């Protein structure tokens, strides 16, 4: 109490010395204590506060620790999460530079192997159908695996199976091709469900569209980097000889291995809290619970509606990634450069994917103010244009083997490559917005939501690859046209419903806030 007494004495002395007639107060020494008691007490109180702030703290009164700036902390966390997304994108870019390039050339490469060795009967479409069929089945187990080991381990296992699959092309055996197709199918389920979960864990409601676009753009760079390599290696070749195959497969396997190492370096995803204004991702209690959660989510209204959209993306995925480039390579009207155009087609599919992903994903904030549905509708229109141009430019029998059949117009290589670009551009419009929608609406169930998405997509892809060997090009385009209409419609319907729901919740929050304010 000693510091307080000294301050009070000094205050009283100061008041007595400084009072003057011009202030309207008494110059009497007693007046400072009687006539102006209220003013004096206010002055004393003010100086006591100043003295208390300047006095030396005692052992009982320790200075407060400096507070952390929550804005800086949150910004640092967001930067770290963005780096995680970028590293994830680069890892997938390397892994799928190898796999997507292999998928693009697999049909034509296996045909060359069969021409050298009649005992080899492996078929590229059948291999891809097996991959996606197994992929579909194991998608139901992927959330359970992630609940045990997390998304990073799931993705790492998946990447290893991709490396193994590519290496089997160094020893072409029919049984080995189909066995490797089964194995990579299990890995595909793990790597894609893990990717969706990891992306959601590193995103907020505000950043999910941006992060989806960044990932998609980096991922789809794989389409033109790998195919650019193939374009030059296949230059002037009518058949893909053994030496060329060995070089291509070895390089692609090495690239996939680099991506696998990058997944090893990927930081472990951390569950975030609502105080950071991010999507809270609740991990399942265990593998059985995760499987049950996926089953319950599958029969919800929104997922059932979105299933049509998912199915369409699976059909068009298999068409652009495995069927379309082969139809170009089998069209003899393109002359000696037909095989080389297979690689060029893959390059321009990738250019379309990256451009669309960058435009609607990375710059998504400028577009998503109007919602996600305009972007999907833009992709729908682009695909309609591509389907029509393919219909008039390529012969009906081109998906099967080399053909001299004529198209409705004189087949144009330029037009064929333009369609490759349009297919890639439209595909990214759909996929970036599906990722954004699932990461936003199903943030608390991201693993099962992405597993269901990939399940339906892979079932559709498997079906497409099964009928691709038996159904002509024009019928395949008709299927794509039919599904694109309904797939776009169901996505728009769900998006409008979610937007209406959010507006209603915001209105209720504003009403409640105004009510609480009026009470005070």
Automatic annotation (TrEMBL):
<dbReference type="InterPro" id="IPR036259">
    <property type="entry name" value="MFS_trans_sf"/>
</dbReference>
<dbReference type="Pfam" id="PF05978">
    <property type="entry name" value="UNC-93"/>
</dbReference>
<dbReference type="GO" id="GO:0016020">
    <property type="term" value="C:membrane"/>
</dbReference>
<feature type="transmembrane region" description="Helical">
    <location>
        <begin position="341"/>
        <end position="363"/>
    </location>
</feature>
<feature type="transmembrane region" description="Helical">
    <location>
        <begin position="447"/>
        <end position="468"/>
    </location>
</feature>
<feature type="transmembrane region" description="Helical">
    <location>
        <begin position="302"/>
        <end position="321"/>
    </location>
</feature>
<feature type="transmembrane region" description="Helical">
    <location>
        <begin position="375"/>
        <end position="395"/>
    </location>
</feature>
<keyword id="KW-0812">Transmembrane</keyword>
<feature type="region of interest" description="Disordered">
    <location>
        <begin position="1"/>
        <end position="73"/>
    </location>
</feature>
<dbReference type="InterPro" id="IPR051617">
    <property type="entry name" value="UNC-93-like_regulator"/>
</dbReference>
<feature type="transmembrane region" description="Helical">
    <location>
        <begin position="125"/>
        <end position="142"/>
    </location>
</feature>
<keyword id="KW-0472">Membrane</keyword>
<feature type="transmembrane region" description="Helical">
    <location>
        <begin position="177"/>
        <end position="201"/>
    </location>
</feature>
<feature type="compositionally biased region" description="Polar residues">
    <location>
        <begin position="19"/>
        <end position="42"/>
    </location>
</feature>
<feature type="transmembrane region" description="Helical">
    <location>
        <begin position="213"/>
        <end position="234"/>
    </location>
</feature>
<feature type="transmembrane region" description="Helical">
    <location>
        <begin position="246"/>
        <end position="266"/>
    </location>
</feature>
<feature type="transmembrane region" description="Helical">
    <location>
        <begin position="407"/>
        <end position="426"/>
    </location>
</feature>
<feature type="compositionally biased region" description="Basic and acidic residues">
    <location>
        <begin position="43"/>
        <end position="53"/>
    </location>
</feature>
<feature type="region of interest" description="Disordered">
    <location>
        <begin position="499"/>
        <end position="520"/>
    </location>
</feature>
<comment type="similarity">
    <text>Belongs to the unc-93 family.</text>
</comment>
<feature type="transmembrane region" description="Helical">
    <location>
        <begin position="82"/>
        <end position="105"/>
    </location>
</feature>
<protein>
    <recommendedName>
        <fullName>UNC93-like protein MFSD11</fullName>
    </recommendedName>
</protein>
<keyword id="KW-0325">Glycoprotein</keyword>
<feature type="transmembrane region" description="Helical">
    <location>
        <begin position="474"/>
        <end position="494"/>
    </location>
</feature>
<feature type="transmembrane region" description="Helical">
    <location>
        <begin position="154"/>
        <end position="171"/>
    </location>
</feature>
<dbReference type="InterPro" id="IPR010291">
    <property type="entry name" value="Ion_channel_UNC-93"/>
</dbReference>
<keyword id="KW-1133">Transmembrane helix</keyword>
